[in-house]
Sequence to fold (139 residues):
Amino acid sequence: QEFTEFRKERGNMLLSRKNQLLLEFSFWNEPVPREGPNIYELRSYQLRPGTMIEWGNYWARAIRFRQDNNEAVGGFFSQIGQLYMVHHLWAYKDLQTREDIRNAAWHKPGWDELVYYTVPLIQEMESRIMIPLKISPLQ
Fold:
């Protein structure tokens, strides 16, 4: 009864809702608990239809440029829901660390080439900064 009432009240506050069933890229690290405190960046990419395999092939190489600081948490793609969606989850100590790590990638030979080839595959992209709850294993 209480849960039914909660769902009804919650429904009055929602403007929209999306669900996706995601699969993990095989070349990405599996998400594991982290010591914090950390902030997380969820980068979401809407790819052009028909480009998922190409994206995956490029990122199988690109991920090695972004693992030095253990910031790569997980990489996922949609299987059900909005298709050709890719989500990358990154962990950083703070926003300054995020900026430093992202800038350092540009100094690594080959990173700029991989970005050059993946950008045309993207229709839309979004970045969200998230702070984990105290109960989250991703601190």
Remarks:
- The beta strands are 21-24, 39-47, 72-80, 85-92, 122-130.
- Residues 20-130 form a domain with the Alpha-Beta Plaits fold (CATH 3.30.70.100).
- The mean pLDDT is 93.
- Residues 2-13 form the longest helix (12 residues).
